[in-house]
Design a protein that fits this description.
Layout: H1 3-13, E1 16-18, E2 30-32, H2 34-53, E3 58-60, E4 66-67, H3 69-74, H4 77-80, E5 82-87, E6 94-96, H5 97-105, H6 114-123, E7 139-142, E8 146-149, E9 155-159, H7 164-169, H8 171-177, E10 184-193, E11 208-218, H9 228-231, E12 235-239, H10 241-245, E13 251-254, H11 265-281, E14 289-293, E15 306-313, E16 317-328, H12 330-339, E17 345-346, E18 352-353, E19 356-363, H13 364-375, E20 376-378, E21 383-385, E22 396-400, H14 407-418, E23 424-426, H15 432-442, E24 446-450, H16 452-457, E25 459-464, E26 470-474, H17 478-488
Parallel strand pairs: 3-10, 12-14, 22-23, 22-24
Antiparallel strand pairs: 1-2, 4-9, 5-6, 5-7, 8-9, 10-11, 11-19, 12-13, 14-15, 15-16, 16-19, 17-18, 20-21, 24-25, 25-26
This protein binds adenosine-5'-triphosphate and glycine (GLY).
Length: about 500
């Protein structure tokens, strides 16, 4: 499938569509429809439950989007958070220079200096893909959106380009609130903004998107992970930096063999394993997932090692959906230096240290894209989303077979009971076959139909979206049936 097919489908069924379509859209910005907003809230809820509610080490925060400008000076974003851009001298179109070189010449120059990329463009006579014009010099372009805060010109600030910094600046307070535990993590999810040079590929590269991030702090002198035995044998499709340098492809390997000796190595392995598990738990096809170590040139300025979880799209190839970075002590040290406040933690023996941090950073939209890509099915009869019940927009739809003879009254009663526990949808209009198809399209796993037999023996039919099989269940047992089937559903 190509990404355009998925984008058209998502617009049609009310998942996501370009913002302000009536004014021609606005590149890099999308709105979520009635179906999409449910899916998105569900993904975020499952993430929060998995990492905050089910991990004793982790607490959550919700930081501000417009942030004190000094945060971004200390973090290095003012200085380093840029992409390389080149503009066509003839038609004025702007391109991300590294992506252009990769697409046209097949050379990976991510992270290389602007001058080096400029030389490659000149030497190979790369021209504007749109009009064939000559390309201008390769320059740096900072991706942060600036904004003025306050009247009369105000103070220049930025919309956060990552949620992470709000976690770092709040570290001293939250560490105290968490009673000085170590290791410990802070989680946050919410909007992030990047003035991407060429937003594209539907939800993949946006200018406004959401992240789900964890900063996991640990003492480099006490960095054993108590869950290591559970994850060390786990296998994934893996690709180390060395394998890439030798021109090799990904292959099944133990996660433990992906990560070299480094402080917090066991935690890094743990976070890679948890990340892959999370994707699979929301329905991302494990056969399309690989974990790739970033090459040293690709890494962000703060990173001492980064592993990307990537998803294989048929048309876009392998693309990052999550980055897991070892940020060392970079951020806490920088904020300590710039603010003059202490960012140290205390060991049981009273000695002090700046914690190191591992950061898994998921994009909400890229997670959903991978999920929908994995779930989309089309055959001669129907299009359906084989989506996990815990993230489906509705878990159940309830229909009376016909809208007369007392069937709607019974169906409504069942619907009302179900929706106290599960997201449910009621529909009594039109042909039953069409009602099923409509639910298949948006991924509703179970459809309950009240028919004439219900009046006789109080049973209803429950239809399974994937197999289209129906079974009869007593109406008083419906809620328990759904509970059981949601719990046991596997990708
Ligand atoms: P890319 O190389 O594709 O630009 P990145 O390396 O800049 O991605 P990170 O900075 O590691 O991405 O951001 C962490 C996560 O945030 C990514 O894995 C992705 O899921 C999400 N993300 C980053 N930029 C965007 C964007 N422009 N649109 C949607 N999601 C994004
Ligand atoms: N916090 C990691 C990133 O957004 O790049």
């Amino acid at each position: 499938m190509d990404i355009k097919t998925l984008a058209d489908f998502c617009a049609k069924v009310g998942i996501a569509f370009p913002t302000a379509e009536i004014y021609g859209g606005f590149s890099g910005f999308y709105d979520w429809g009635p179906v999409g907003v449910e899916i998105k809230n569900n993904v975020k809820r499952v993430w929060w439950r998995t990492f905050v509610h089910q991990m004793d080490e982790i607490v959550g925060i919700d930081g501000s989007i417009v942030t004190h400008p000094d945060v971004w000076k200390a973090s290095g974003h003012v200085e380093h958070f840029h992409d390389v851009v080149t503009r066509c001298k003839k038609c004025g179109r702007a391109y991300r220079a590294d992506k252009l070189v990769l697409e046209v010449l097949g050379i990976n120059v991510e992270g290389k200096p602007a001058e080096e990329i400029d030389t490659i463009i000149r030497k190979n006579n790369v021209r504007c893909p749109s009009c064939g014009g000559e390309l201008g010099p390769v320059e740096y372009f900072n991706l942060m959106f600036e904004t003025k805060v306050g009247p009369y010109g105000g103070v220049t600030s930025y919309l956060r380009p990552e949620t992470a910094q709000l976690i770092f600046v709040n570290f001293p307070r939250v560490y105290l609130l968490a009673r000085k535990r170590m290791p410990f993590g802070i989680a946050q999810m919410g909007k992030a903004y990047r003035n991407e040079i060429s937003p594209r590929n539907f939800l993949f590269r946006l200018r406004e998107f959401e992240q789900m991030e964890i900063e996991f702090f640990f003492d480099p002198k006490d960095d054993a992970c108590p869950y290591y035995n559970e994850v060390k044998g786990k296998k994934v499709l893996g690709l180390t930096a060395e394998m890439q340098e030798r021109g090799e492809k990904e292959r099944p390997m133990r996660i433990a063999d992906l990560v070299p000796e480094m402080p917090g190595r066991e935690w890094m392995i743990f976070w890679i394993a948890k990340s892959v598990d999370f994707f699979v738990s929301v329905g991302v096809d494990p056969k399309r997932i690989r974990v790739r170590e970033q090459l040293p040139d690709e890494r962000a300025h703060y990173s001492m090692g980064t592993w990307d979880v990537e998803f294989r799209f048929d048309d876009l190839g392998w693309q990052e959906i999550e980055g897991i970075a070892h940020r060392g002590t970079y951020d806490l040290s920088r904020h300590q230096e710039f603010s003059g406040k202490s960012f140290e933690a205390v060991r049981p023996d009273g000695s002090k240290f700046i914690p190191m941090v591992i950061e898994p950073s998921w994009g909400v939209e890229r997670t959903i894209l991978a999920m929908l890509y994995s779930a989309y099915r089309k055959d001669e009869k129907r299009t359906y989303l084989r989506i996990h019940p815990q993230v489906a927009p509705y878990v159940v739809a309830v229909f009376p077979l016909v809208s007369k003879d007392g069937l709607p009254e019974i169906a409504r009663e069942i619907y009302k009971e179900i929706r106290t526990e599960f997201r449910a949808f009621y529909d009594e209009k039109g042909n039953i076959g069409k009602r099923y198809r409509r639910q298949d399209e948006i991924g509703t796993p179970f459809c309950i139909t009240v028919d004439y037999q219900t009046r006789e023996d109080e049973t209803v039919t429950i239809r399974d979206r994937d197999t289209m099989q129906q079974e009869r269940v007593h109406k008083d047992e419906v809620v328990a049936w759904i509970r059981e089937h949601v719990k046991n559903w596997r990708v």
